[in-house]
Structure formats: C-alpha cells, structure tokens
Specification:
Blueprint lengths: L2 H5 L2 E4 L5 H12 L3 E6 L6 H9 L4 E5 L5 H15 L4 E4 L5 E2 L7 H29 L2 E6 L12 H21 L4 E8 L11 E2 L9 H16 L4 H13 L6 E4 L1 H12 L2 H12 L2
Parallel strand pairs: 1-2, 1-4, 2-3, 4-6, 5-8, 6-7, 7-9
The chain binds NADP nicotinamide-adenine-dinucleotide phosphate.
Length: 281
C-alpha cells in the first residue's frame, strides 16, 4: 500500500446496481473516496462501471449479497486486504414486500427481514470491529420515512425499517465512545427501480383485500409521479458522511418532511384519519 492509498478514505456501498446505491457510489467516488460499489449480481455492473470509467473515478465493483454471511465476510476481508481500512459504509440494499399481512407467508416475511434488517446487521457486524479499532468511521443506514410511519399492505417492509431505526438508535450510544457514528437516511418516494422491484405477496384477483389494495396502488402511482431522483438522496448521504457532527436522522424529500411533520404534530388518531384520506379509504 503506498502513502496515497493509505490516506485515501474507503467507502463501501451495498445494493449499487441501481437507484440510490448506484448514485451514492458515484457521488462518494467523485468526492475522492476509494469506493467499493457492491452488488449481489455482477451482471448488473455495466452501467456503474462505464460511468466510473468515463470520469476516471476511484471505484471498484465487488459482489456482495447481504443475505449471505460468507459473501459479506469475504467481501469485507477483500477490501481490508486491499486498503487496510473502511471509513464509510452505506447500508442501502433493500426492497419492499407488498400485500395484505394475512396473505403474506412467513417465508416471504422472513426474506424481507433477512435483506432489509438482518442483511444490514450482517454488514455492520463485519465492519464494526474494523472501525472500532481505527477509532473512526460512519455507518449510514438507509431506512425510509417508512421507518417512522406505516402505510397499509406493507407491514413486513415497515417492520424491517422500524427495526433498523430502533437498532441504530441503540447502537449509536455503544459505538460513539470509539469514534464510530451511525446515521439514518429517511427518504420519501424516490424514482428508482424500487417500484418495479416491489415483491407482491400473491395475486390479488380473488383477495378480499382487493378493493383497498387497488386504491393504494392508485395512490402509489401519484406518489411516484412526485418522486425525487436518487441523486438527491446520494447528496444527503454525502453531506452526512463529510460532516463532523451529522444529524442522526436525515429526512429526504418534501413528501417525507410534510408527512413526518403531520405525524409529530398530531395524535395517533388524528394522524390515522389524515393517512386514510391520503389513500381514499
Ligand atoms: N425508492 C424509494 O421510494 C425508497 C424510499 C425510501 C427508502 N428506500 C430505500 O432505499 C434503498 C435503495 O432502494 P432504491 O430506491 O435504490 O431501489 P432499487 O433501485 O430497487 O435498488 C435496490 C438495490 O438493493 C439491491 N438488493 C436487494 N436485495 C439485495 C441483497 N440481498 N443483497 C445485495 N443487494 C440487494 C438491489 O439489487 P438487484 O439489482 O440485484 O435487485 C439493488 O441494487 C432500499 O433500502 C429502500 O428500502 C427507497
């Protein structure tokens, strides 16, 4: 490792094949971080690889499936062998499982928790001893406004994001004395492949929940029309990463700001009435 490499700060981003992960990897690399853009399927690496090559960015693509202990541990080991340090981890990989709770199998529910919650924990567990020994580092956990407010037919998704918020809130006290920070990024609707990748729990044609699910689908369409670009989330992530004293919670998007404001200024009953109106329930 030469002197320049030693000084370079190292960032790792999960779920970098598309959307927020892809843009965050590029933004961090442009800022001068030696960036490891990880993704579970390297066949999807062409887009980020060509963008990074065009600007000669310090970006390397590596395979990492956050559901898999060996994949996470091997990739983190490889980065440590290459660079000897990790300064930033952006836990971004995730997807949403959509459907009535009653019609969601435990298998699908567990898979949702495995990626969004345990997947993030797996990466944190692999990286935390490194950052603690370095006495510096920041973990950025991409949750959602859905980590603080819940909409219907998304129960396991919200469970995964609420859980990650709670875990992060507890963890921050433990790791702060070692110079390691944890922050949350809470976007509203973002224009990415997230909406295309929604996993439906079952075909709703003969579901008793069909009329309400259809209403919700219509409001999803409205939400995505006003969605913000993933670059906007990436810029807020960068701001938190380079700040000496970042906010613990970082809300991104006007939709998230206004919904969270309504939530904090009203009783649970008033908030539920407000939300039902949004969905036409
Ligand atoms: N878009 C929104 O409106 C929105 C709002 C709030 C929060 N978020 C959160 O933002 C994060 C990023 O989502 P996005 O909007 O950028 O959606 P996206 O374009 O669908 O990207 C999701 C990324 O996660 C990856 N991923 C999924 N499971 C994985 C696994 N087991 N291991 C490694 N990578 C995995 C996907 O890989 P593949 O390409 O292989 O599937 C993809 O790279 C998610 O945590 C999501 O919950 C999104």
């Amino acid at each position: 490792m030469n002197d320049q490499e030693k000084q370079m700060q190292v960032a790792v981003v999960t779920g970098s094949s598309t959307g927020i992960g892809l843009e965050t990897s590029l933004v961090l690399a442009k800022e001068g971080f030696s960036t490891y853009a990880t993704m579970r399927n390297l066949d999807k690496s062409a887009d980020i690889t060509s963008k990074a090559a065009r600007e000669d960015l310090p970006l390397t693509v590596l395979q990492m499936n956050v559901d898999d202990d060996k994949s996470v541990n091997d990739t983190i080991k490889k980065i440590i062998n290459d660079k000897g340090r990790i300064d930033v981890v952006v836990n971004n990989a995730g997807y949403a499982l959509v459907g009535a709770f009653e019609e969601t199998s435990m298998l699908d529910g567990r898979a949702q928790m495995e990626t969004n919650f345990f997947g993030t924990l797996r990466v944190i567990k692999a990286v935390l001893p490194i950052m603690r020994n370095q006495r510096t580092g920041i973990m950025v956990n991409v949750t959602s406004m859905g980590g603080r407010v819940a909409i219907p037919f998304d129960s396991f998704y919200h469970a995964s994001k609420f859980a990650l918020e709670g875990l992060s809130e507890s963890l921050r006290y433990e790791i702060e004395p070692f110079g390691v920070k944890v922050v949350l990024i809470e976007p509203g609707a973002v224009k990415s492949d997230f909406w295309k990748n929604l996993k439906l729990t079952r075909n709703i044609e003969d579901s008793p929940y069909r009329p309400v699910i259809q209403k919700l689908t219509e409001s999803f369409e409205k939400m995505t029309q006003n969605a913000i670009p993933p670059e906007q989330v990436a810029r807020i992530i960068l701001k938190a990463v380079i700040s000496d004293n970042p906010d613990f919670r970082n809300i991104v998007g006007e939709d998230a700001k206004s919904i969270l404001e309504v939530k904090s200024n009203n009783s649970d009953k008033e908030f539920q009435t407000f939300m039902k109106k949004q969905f036409g329930f």
